[in-house]
């Protein structure tokens, strides 16, 4: 089986390649323009790199035609970035996803696994979020992922593609040094002795899921034929204040910088966590790593990779 992973140099992509290799999937091609990810993220792993952008039509067409399964992770990934530049977000996330589907249709390819998102699509809603809730994105990022899901569904209905839209919650883990998401940002602040910034009162909740739990499900989905939208998280809420308490236990009170509260940011959802019962029942999703264990492993990785990743390039 030949697997194409867009955005494979990124956080989730590099962990996915490691997990795929462990499961004996070695015929893997990465399409990544190194906008964010770096080749060193997949050092020692079995995967070929094609350094190109999603918008390089001929290269993408050639890759789609020569692979069996496509995992589409490359994207403009941040809520705040999408608010600053919605046009770029639209082109990267919507037009490129549509382009991939069109190329799959043209070449008779069937299987696409798409990285979607939970809270950003559903917007403010009473958690737990499930797949049946109306979508009311509050940011261009959420809207772009919703548009992607719409096209996946349409290409299933009209052209028989088998597509999965996996709505990841807040993924954390090793390999996230370059990320601005809260766990990575806090561990970097601890390493640098910078204050931990909390936007709002810290009582906002998120659903933190360890990256291996997500990647195990993705690997399992290479060779199955289910389609649909699935929430993938831990299924439990954790407030930012609770997260800070756990981080303090792991890094030690003496190493803990002060916490500084800032005004709440526009476009961010206040309370969220997801209901994972559909993914558990239909596709055997089974997250096993506790938040405490995952944080401990992530902190150890940050400590041991600080020298390598603490540089801009
Ligand atoms: N990390 C999370 O918590 C989370 C949560 C929900 C959804 N997601 C989604 O999962 C996917 C992967 O996220 P991640 O955290 O690994 O992000 P990441 O930024 O670490 O990885 C994204 C990769 O895509 C590449 N890329 C970006 N634009 C590209 C383009 N135009 N052409 C080619 N490559 C391009 C980047 O260089 C990077 O290596 C994204 O689609 C993201 O929206 C992530």
Describe the structure.
By secondary structure, the chain is an alpha/beta fold. The chain has a domain at 3-172 and 209-233 and 275-287: NAD(P)-binding Rossmann-like Domain (Rossmann fold). 43% of the residues lie in helices and 17% in strands. It has helices at residues 11-22, 57-65, 79-84, 86-107, 119-122, 140-159, 182-192, 211-222, 240-251, 277-283, 291-309, and strands spanning 3-6, 28-32, 48-51, 69-72, 111-117, 162-168, 170-172, 196-199, 205-206, 208-210, 228-232, 238-239, 259-262. The strands form 4 sheets. It has a 7-stranded parallel sheet with strand order 3-2-1-4-5-6-11, sandwiched between helices. Strands 7-10 form a two-stranded parallel ribbon. Strand 1 (3-6), helix 1 and strand 2 (28-32) form a beta-alpha-beta unit. Helix 4 (86-107) runs parallel beside helix 6 (140-159). The mean pLDDT is 95. The protein binds nicotinamide-adenine-dinucleotide.
Oligomeric form of this entry? single chain
Tell how many strands the DSSP assignment holds.
13
Overall mean pLDDT: 95
Question: Can you tell me the CATH superfamily of one domain?
Answer: NAD(P)-binding Rossmann-like Domain
- Unreliable segments of 5+ consecutive residues: none
Beta-strand portion reads 15-25%
Order of helices and strands: EHEEHEHHEHHEEHEEEHEEHEHH
- As a whole number of angstroms, the C-alpha radius of gyration is 19 Å
Helix share of residues? 40-55%
User: In CATH terms, what is the fold-level topology of one domain?
Assistant: Rossmann fold
What overall geometry do the principal axes of the alpha carbons give?
Answer: globular
- Helix count equals 11
Strand order of the largest sheet: 3-2-1-4-5-6-11
Q: How far is the N terminus from the C terminus?
A: 33 Å
Highest-level CATH class of one domain: Alpha Beta
- CATH-defined architecture of one domain: 3-Layer(aba) Sandwich
User: Which small molecules are bound?
Assistant: nicotinamide-adenine-dinucleotide
Classify the secondary structure makeup into a structural class: alpha/beta
Biggest sheet features: 7 strands, parallel
């Amino acid at each position: 089986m030949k697997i194409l992973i867009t955005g494979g140099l990124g956080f989730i992509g590099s962990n996915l390649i490691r997990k795929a290799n462990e499961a004996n999937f070695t015929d893997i091609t990465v399409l990544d323009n190194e906008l964010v990810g770096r080749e060193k993220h997949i050092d020692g792993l079995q995967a070929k790199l094609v350094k190109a952008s999603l918008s390089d039509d001929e290269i993408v067409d050639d890759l789609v035609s020569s692979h069996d399964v496509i995992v589409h992770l490359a994207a403009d990934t941040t809520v705040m970035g999408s608010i600053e530049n919605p046009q770029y977000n639209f082109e990267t996330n919507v037009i490129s996803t549509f382009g991939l589907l069109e190329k799959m249709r043209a070449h008779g390819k069937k299987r696409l696994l798409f990285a979607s998102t939970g809270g950003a699509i559903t917007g403010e809603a009473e958690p737990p979020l499930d797949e049946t809730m109306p979508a009311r994105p509050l940011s261009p990022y959420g809207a772009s992922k919703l548009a992607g899901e719409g096209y996946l569904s349409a290409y299933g209905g009209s052209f028989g593609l088998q597509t999965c839209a996996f709505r990841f919650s807040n993924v954390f883990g090793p390999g996230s040094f370059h990320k601005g998401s809260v766990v990575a940002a806090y561990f970097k602040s601890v390493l640098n002795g910078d204050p931990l910034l909390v936007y709002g009162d810290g009582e906002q909740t998120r659903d933190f899921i360890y990256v291996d739990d997500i990647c195990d499900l993705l690997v399992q989905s290479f060779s199955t034929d289910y389609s649909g939208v699935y929430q993938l998280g831990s299924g439990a809420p954790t407030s930012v204040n609770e997260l800070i308490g756990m981080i303090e236990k792991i890094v030690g009170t003496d190493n803990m910088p002060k916490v500084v509260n800032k005004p709440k940011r526009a476009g961010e959802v206040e309370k969220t966590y997801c209901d994972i019962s559909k993914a558990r029942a239909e596709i055997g999703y089974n997250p096993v790593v506790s938040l405490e264990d995952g944080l401990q492993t992530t902190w150890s990785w940050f400590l041991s990779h600080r020298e390598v990743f603490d540089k801009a390039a």
